[in-house]
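Incident log, support desk, overnight shift.

02:14 A customer reports that sequence design results differ from what the structure should imply. Their input is reproduced verbatim below. On-call engineer (initials T.W.) acknowledged and began investigating.
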């Protein structure tokens, strides 16, 4: 989420604050309702229902979990790619984009570069709910 002064981001998972020249991952979240896992094209065509801004440290941990679960997910479909919990009839499809922000002379202007769709994955609703809860409880921030 953007900082109150508009000059940086707060990681929605760990609450860290990044300002000036920084990089973060933007999660575009789409709610999927189905009796089985829908096709990739259908997931991509779904409307965005939420978003999260995640620091590169938290994203690295999430990506590590996806890699750890990769072989298990290939043999057992319909599982959360991060926690390996069963997806159920309603789950979320996440499209991660890398965002780089470089401050230009004045703190009020920045150059922003976005690399879209660096990773796409399915998550269970319990994981999404825990991430949203962390975002909602973020009352105090630590500066990195």
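02:41 Re-run completed on a clean worker. Output:
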């Amino acid at each position: 989420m953007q900082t109150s002064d508009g000059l940086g981001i707060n990681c929605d998972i760990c609450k860290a604050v990044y300002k000036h020249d920084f990089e973060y991952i933007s999660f575009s979240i789409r709610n999927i309702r189905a009796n089985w896992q829908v096709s990739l094209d259908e997931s991509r065509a779904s409307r965005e229902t939420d978003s999260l801004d995640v620091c590169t440290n938290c994203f690295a941990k999430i990506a590590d979990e996806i890699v750890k679960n990769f072989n298990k997910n290939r043999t057992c479909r319909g599982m959360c790619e991060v926690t390996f919990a069963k997806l159920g009839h309603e789950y979320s499809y996440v499209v991660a984009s890398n965002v780089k922000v470089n401050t230009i002379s004045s703190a009020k202007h920045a150059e922003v570069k976005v690399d879209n769709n660096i990773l796409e994955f399915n998550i269970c609703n319990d994981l999404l709910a825990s991430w949203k809860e962390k975002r909602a409880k973020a009352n105090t921030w630590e500066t990195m």
